[in-house]
Amino acid sequence: MIDLAIDKTKPIDLSVDKSDRKEKFLYMAFMTFFLLAFPLGYKMGLMDLSTMTLWGRYFCFVIAAIGVDLIWGYTGVMTMCHAFFFCIGAYALGMYMTIENMPAGAEVPDFMKWNDVNSLPLFWLPFKSAIGAFLGGLVAAGVFAGVLGYLIFRRKIKGVFFAIITQALALAMYLLFSRNETMLGGSNGLTNFRYLFGFDLHSENVKIGLYIISVIVMALVYWFALFLTKSKFGKILVGIRDSESRLRFTGYKVVNYQTAVFVIGAIIAAIGGMLYLPQTGIITPGRMDVRASIEMLIWVALGGRGNLKGAVVGTLIVNILYSVSTSLIPQAWPYILGLLYIAVVLYPNNGVTGFCSSVAEKVKSITFKKVSYAENK
Fold first, then answer.
1. Which residues of 83-102 are buried (b: 16+ CB within 10 A; e: fewer)?
2. Which among 351, 292, 60 is positioned nearest to 167, based on CA atoms?
3. pLDDT averaged over the chain?
4. What is the rounded CA–CA span in Å between residue 287 and residue 57?
5. Is 97:145 a contact under the CB 8 Å cutoff?
6. What residue spans define the domains of the chain?
7. Which of 93, 235, 286, 320 is 20 to 30 A from 189 (CA-CA)?
8. Helix (H, G, I), strand (E, B), or coil: what is residue 37?
9. DSSP code at position 200
10. Under a CB-based contact definition with an 8 Å cutoff, are residues 173 and 107 in contact?
């Protein structure tokens, strides 16, 4: 727990110690490996293109998980609608790609023709341009999260009640997007994309490029989140998680900080969704249902919440297990997911990264004792 009696006039010490330098070195090595090893492995015939594309989607999920960790791990607010923000970004880019990929002379997509709609709805017009789609997705996610977060946080709703409200929101949005009347493809979603910004999505070089962009964006989002957590803003978030009442007593406007981190997490998720869509080729309401948001919580909890590298590790572990189990024994995945859920409930704080750190500390302690004993002897 941090000291909440913070002197607002005293500058925050942001100096980097040896552990910080070591952590940065390890993650630079991690990113460099994925930037070089997979593309080179494909060029050398050691892996196929679909595997690299699959990992590109994993990194999109990692981006969303980092946003969840900021909200839940560092601030202590369990959000169960984060998959909806992920889908906002995907749908925003999907609307632009739908317009871009319409046949010459077509005024509206096919699913609108089936509903006797002969002109684009007004809310589709900003997404006729790439910039409009990008900004529209980020603004929509940010505004939605800002309004929702402020209305909930100002009433001091938290804990399980906040989780229930956001869960209900996720279900409501899932049902809304599934209706044909919303003009977003209904339960079939948006699909049949061939081009993005004029590039052929079936091209080998484009798929490699999307993978590399996903790794780079994940690295940038990670370092942004790391900077955020090391700053005074991040320390206040931890203070809210550990003792919100004490932080309110010291004069901080907790609602503003909670709303701000909720908005940041939503925008980060939307970015992940935008990168996800071109690599998977489809976005449906099923990606925003309650189960999808719960899975995001499991990613973070399994890796170790309140620890950004835990969000990375947990997301990769769960998604790799999903790919392997659904390929070998598809029926086993619900049971595996259930076991993971039980594990994160029984061991909610440390996760995989915390367990590995504790083992490393014990090994280091035993080794040090043996060396000391040998020297004394």
1. bbbbbbbbbbbbbbbbbbbe
2. 292
3. 85
4. 13
5. no
6. 18-287
7. 320
8. helix
9. E
10. no
Query: Which among 46, 130, 90 has a CA at the least distance from the CA of 279?
Result: 90
User: Encoding tokens for residue 50?
Assistant: 């679909």
Percent of the chain having pLDDT more than 90?
45
CA distance 263 to 148: 10
Cβ atoms of 354 and 304 closer than 8 Å: yes
Q: pLDDT digits over 350-364, tens only?
A: 778 777 777 777 777
Q: CA-based Rg of the chain, rounded to a whole angstrom?
A: 22
The lowest-confidence range among 83-87, 215-219, 279-283, 326-330 is 326-330
CB-CB contact of 205 with 303 (8 Å): no
Give exposure, 156-176, as e/b (b: 16+ Cβ within 10 Å). Answer: eebeeebbebbbebbbebbee
Among candidates 157, 84, 91, 151, which has minimal Cα distance to 123? 91
What's this model's pTM, rounded to 2 decimal places?
A: 0.88
